[in-house]
Amino acid sequence: MAMEGLFKQNKCFIIAEAGVNHNGNLEIAKKLIDVAKEAGVDAVKFQTFKSENLVTKDAPKANYQVNTTGSGTQYEMLKKLELSFEDHVILKKYAEEKGLIFISTPFDFESVDLLENLGVDLYKISSGDLTNIPLLRYIAKFNKPMIVSTGMANLAEVECAVNSIKQEGNDKIILLHCTSNYPTDYEDVNLRAMVTLKDAFKLPVGYSDHTIGIEVPIAAVTMGAVVIEKHFTLDKSMDGPDHRASLDAEELKNMIISIRNIENSLGNGIKSCQKSEESSKRSARKSIVANRLIKQGELISYDNISFKRCQGGLSPVYADEIVGNMAIQDIEKDEILTFEKLSR
């Protein structure tokens, strides 16, 4: 897929992040695709990993993972959330039958090979792998678009990642601003950093959101995001690390509606009277009228004219031009003034 294929009609490319919210269950994963389709997203995304390639057996959980899944190791948690190659085949076919682009984030080399064998159109890189330069280079060699999240990073780390991808001859890069906390507090979003990324690297930018609610991704679209990624779930009360920081089906749908409405409202930036305003313009704009009977031969002054809504007539912008001219006929009260009624 070429980069331009992601940005049809200047619309934001919206990724519904199913992630591991399927809880390792294929039927739940398919229901998530159903929800994503109903909401109107462009793509649905999962995560592809082999637990033994991703974490050591004793790797501790992040604080939010402890809060959502209790004690234990990352390995124990992730092992229950793996999808098999057969699961991937089924889910990709199921998503594409519904007109959605299937995406999955690979977390190791073996998972990249799985997705490449599956024939994915693009790759999404997690924030955790922004500094995994060998993995970035490996994926870059396939010369497919790479959507790269930048949570936890500074500009120097982002620059290193971008350069490593470009050095493999791949410049199809989209950077996502992100805060890697689940959920993210509003004061930690730092949405202006998305603009900083765009200015620094001259690349398309977007936003991967982990806040509660839909306000921040909507705001990101107004600031130029070309990609929005947001976690969603069937039920926020389900067991698992990411459900609580995800949108439910209704919230996801409302986010899509809001984003599309905002996109329509942004327009082309040219300040002009819209076609829909023409009727209002005719009824709301004022014209120059006589505020009393003006007799033939009388000079026009601000004392004998007013500015009122009426049908036709001269705009008040011409007031200075007609003041001092002489009426060549009687002009009744509330009658419009025109240049034809005046000597110039």
UniProtKB/TrEMBL annotation:
InterPro entries per record: AFP_Neu5c_C_sf, Aldolase_TIM, NeuB/NeuA, PseI-like, PseI/NeuA/B-like_N, SAF, SAF_AFP_Neu5Ac, SAF_PseI/NeuA/NeuB
GO biological process: carbohydrate biosynthetic process
Limits of the AFP-like domain: 287-344
TM regions (residue ranges): none
GO function terms (MF aspect): N-acylneuraminate-9-phosphate synthase activity
Ranges in a coiled coil: none
Top-rank taxon: Bacteria
Descriptive protein name: AFP-like domain-containing protein
Organism field: Fervidicella metallireducens AeB
